[in-house]
Design a protein that fits this description.
The complex is a heterodimer of chains A (392) and B (379). Chain A has 392 residues and is an alpha/beta fold. Chain A contains 13 helices and twelve strands. A six-stranded parallel sheet of chain A has the order 2-1-3-4-5-11, sandwiched between helices. Chain A has a six-stranded mixed sheet with strand order 7-6-8-9-10-12, with helices on both faces. In chain A, helix 5 crosses helix 6 and helix 7 packs across helix 8. Chain A is globular, with a radius of gyration of 22 Å. Chain B has a two-stranded antiparallel ribbon with strand order 1-2. In chain B, helix 3 crosses helix 15, helix 5 runs parallel beside helix 9 and helix 6 runs antiparallel to helix 7. The chains are: A alpha/beta (392), B mainly alpha (379).
């Protein structure tokens, strides 16, 4: 009898599939990725995640096109645009900027969006993020954590010297300066936490991230902020080894994640907070604008106020744990332990520091606090001169 | 005889070689291509994709129209040049794995034309010359090590690839860097770019450079006395030396000529590939062109004309492979496409690999032998 029941169930499911297939597909969107490709648990995966979500919500068909080499960028865009089938083509990453500038003039009727680069064309929505705002929060947290635990320094490992990364550095400098002042104001003790920073020149060489982090830890860094995507894997590895050698489980040195919420990585033992850049939100918005007919070319700047950037909170941890499980980087049975580890790590800092971070966030949101940024070498040098933090 | 004949593996390879070498090379290649396509189809079927749909997309994306054909040729251009680097040296009995590194320095040299002004045609020619010279100079390192100290060229060229890679990384980040955009070098000015041959595609006049170099190599190797000497030295160095051929001269010549080819590949990429006309940090458009060229050389049976056909085939695989990612209801992801391409390339290269393998094995044995000898002497 039970066997029969099962067969009936299977037959019912087979018949039911068309009924549950959802609304008919209305259009098509494409995501074009640079040579970095999927699997970084950060930037590229976020671009995919947001577009995929939008495609599901609006009943669109989605295709993903990866680029084997940089010589594929322009042909990929041309091949997609030539079909005239795509309502929107999203380019994820500034590396695609030159190719898109060319393709946008060749196909003026095709709608494009690009993340992290500004392409001046009426059919291109350029989505940029105010990374300086979230980096200020991470910088403030790092400085206060260092002062609290008696560490002299805090570090940041960056990728290639590009304008986008200047936003991160400028915000981090401002944040550390703010954190130093806040610590002195609350505790009455002076704080002069200094900053260590390294541009590794790479977004892919994980060993470089590890080496840079080891050097910073040796100089007394309370933690390291990853601003180099996949290199964060190396950063976290160095921090994990440091803890293992000293026999500690949580507490400083900490790992600060980037782009995605990376707090869960390494079972949440060392991730204190992540500067989240919601590439997924940007992609989702672009698709939504096309579906609703509000798409226009030009720059869309996403900051704290638009939910485009932020510092990780408990809810984000849960969302991105799911992301890590889907990517196969976290086992489902480790979820509970990861959450406990993360909470234990956060508890190594007093409540007033977390309250101060909320205060800074509120100040940036209501406009009473302006975070500096930089797009050129000259602007960056000006910010460095203003907030030297012992490291011009 | 030597130990190689007694070894069962050697005998097996020789047997396979004998069976295959009875066939005409063109037929051999076609058979290998069919085998590779079948293996790729089986792989795609196992992972739940529709092989015939995907291959149809590949074919249409590679040769479905004038735009597609131009794209395929454009992707093949640098591969023609790096393939020639490998095959010139193989013909002279050398295994030059260094096309990759020689191409990097060639590309860096080509970018330096941005620092001076010249009239349109001349500027381009100077850039081409600089790239060729840089590639040739870089290939002199392994050649001289081989001639003066007997260093195996297989190892030294691989080492030189790494040196070149980090040298060019440094040049891109620190010396040739664009002050306004830190992620790339200065762009080659318009006057020094290869004009686009087919509007709206990547195909530029660099294709004529590649074809001309291939024809030059063909003429040199098969219609001049120097070429005859090079090939003789490659077929049997002992006999060639007995016949009065200077092995040193042929080695040097093959490396320099090969280096020029690789350098030109760098020029074709930086000066002839839209839209950036610069080297981007991390070298994403150059990486692996030298190694892919080795596969092209093997599929083209180390003959310049064969290489032209093979490069078109590889360019087609690349251009069509891109299209497989978004064609039909169940498109094939890039990773799977790369697996399928790998199967096809491997099958195509097997006949040539079998031919080259005994020579490579002999070189390896020689190397091990010299190590053990040195150990015995020190003991």
């Amino acid at each position: 009898m039970r066997k029969w029941g099962m067969w009936v169930l299977v037959a019912a499911m087979l018949l039911a599939v068309p009924a549950f297939a959802g609304p008919a597909l209305k259009g098509k969107v494409a995501v074009v990725l640079d040579v970095g490709g999927r699997g970084d648990l950060s930037f590229n995966d976020m671009g995919f995640k947001g577009t995929d979500q939008a495609a599901q919500d609006f009943g669109l068909e989605m295709v993903e096109v990866q680029s084997a080499t940089a010589a594929d960028y322009l042909p990929n865009l041309r091949n997609l645009a030539r079909t005239r089938e795509y309502d929107l083509i999203i380019c994820v990453g500034f590396l695609l900027g030159d190719a898109l500038a060319q393709a946008a003039t060749e196909f003026p009727n095709q709608k494009f969006a690009i993340i992290d680069s500004v392409v001046d064309a009426p059919n291109v929505m350029s989505i940029v993020f105010r990374e300086n705002e979230m980096s200020a929060l991470i910088g403030a947290l790092a400085a206060m954590a260092a002062a609290h635990h008696g560490y002299p320094k805090a570090g940041v490992v960056l990728g290639i010297e590009i304008p986008v990364l200047y936003h991160f550095e400028a915000g981090f400098r401002f944040g550390m300066d703010w954190g130093n002042k806040q610590y002195a104001a609350v505790t009455g003790k002076p704080a002069q936490v200094e900053m260590l920073y390294t541009y590794t020149g790479s977004f892919s060489d994980i060993a470089l991230g590890k080496a840079a982090t080891e050097a910073m830890l040796a100089q007394g860094a309370v933690g390291v902020y990853n601003v180099a995507g996949p290199l964060g894997i190396g950063d976290l590895e160095a921090i994990t080894e440091y803890h293992r050698n000293r026999g500690t489980r949580s507490g400083p040195p900490y790992y600060f994640g980037v782009d995605a919420n990376q707090d869960w990585m390494g079972k949440g033992l060392h991730g204190l907070a992540s500067g989240m850049k919601r590439v997924d939100t940007g992609c989702y918005m672009a698709v939504k604008a096309v579906v609703e007919g509000t798409f226009t070319g030009g720059i869309v700047s996403l900051g704290l106020a638009e939910g485009g950037v932020g510092i990780s909170k408990y809810g984000d941890l849960l969302e991105f744990i799911e992301f890590g499980v889907k990517a196969g980087a976290l086992k489902p049975e480790d979820i509970a332990e990861t959450i406990l580890n993360w909470q234990a790590n956060r508890a190594t800092l007093p409540d007033w520091i977390w309250a101060a971070i909320d205060e800074l966030e509120a100040g940036i949101l209501n406009g009473t606090i302006q975070v500096p940024t930089a797009d050129t070498v000259a602007e960056m040098q000006a910010v460095r001169a203003k907030y030297t933090l012992g490291a011009p | 005889m030597t130990g190689a004949d007694v070894r069962p593996g050697g005998r097996l390879l020789r047997g396979a070689h004998r069976t295959l070498s009875g066939l005409h090379p063109a037929l051999e290649s076609v058979l290998a291509a069919v085998l590779g396509l079948l293996v790729g189809a089986v792989l795609m079927y196992i992972w739940g994709y529709e092989p015939w749909h995907a291959y149809w997309a590949l074919l249409k994306g590679a040769f479905g129209g004038s735009y597609e054909i131009a794209s395929s040729i454009a992707r093949g251009v640098p591969l023609i040049l790096t393939a020639l680097t490998f095959s010139i040296c193989v013909r002279a009995g050398m295994f030059n794995i260094g096309a990759e590194g020689q191409m990097y320095v060639g590309a860096a040299a080509a970018v330096t034309v941005a620092y001076f002004k010249l009239p349109a045609g001349l500027h381009l020619l100077v850039g081409i010359a600089l790239a060729g010279i840089a590639g040739a100079l870089w290939s002199l390192g392994p050649a001289l090590l081989k001639l003066t100290r007997g260093v195996s060229e297989v190892i030294s060229t691989i080492m030189f690839n790494w040196m070149s890679r980090f040298l060019v990384f440094y040049l891109v980040a620190q010396v040739l860097v664009d002050p306004r955009r830190a992620e790339k070098t200065v762009s080659v000015p318009r006057t020094a770019r290869f004009p686009i041959l087919v509007a709206g595609t990547d195909l530029s006049y660099s294709v004529f450079l590649a074809v001309a170099f291939a024809l030059l190599v063909y003429f040199l190797l098969w219609h001049t006395a120097t070429g005859y000497e090079m090939r003789a030295a490659g077929l049997n160095p002992t006999a060639a030396r007995y016949g009065g051929i200077s092995i040193k001269r042929t080695i040097l010549l093959s490396f320099v000529l090969g280096g020029i080819g690789a350098g030109l590949a760098g020029a074709a990429t930086t000066m002839g590939l839209p839209p950036t006309y610069a080297i981007i940090s991390g070298l994403p458009e150059l990486m692996n062109l030298g190694f892919d060229g080795m596969a092209v050389a093997m599929v083209g049976r180390n003959h310049p004309i064969g290489i032209l056909v093979a490069a078109l085939f590889f360019g087609g695989l690349n251009a069509g492979g891109r299209v497989m990612q978004f064609y039909g209801a169940n498109p094939v992801p890039l990773e799977m496409i790369r697996v399928v391409m790998g199967a096809i390339v491997l099958a195509m290269a097997i006949p040539e690999l079998i031919r080259i393998f005994p020579a490579l094995a002999a070189a390896g044995r020689g190397l091990v032998g010299s190590f053990t000898r040195a150990k015995k002497e020190t003991a």
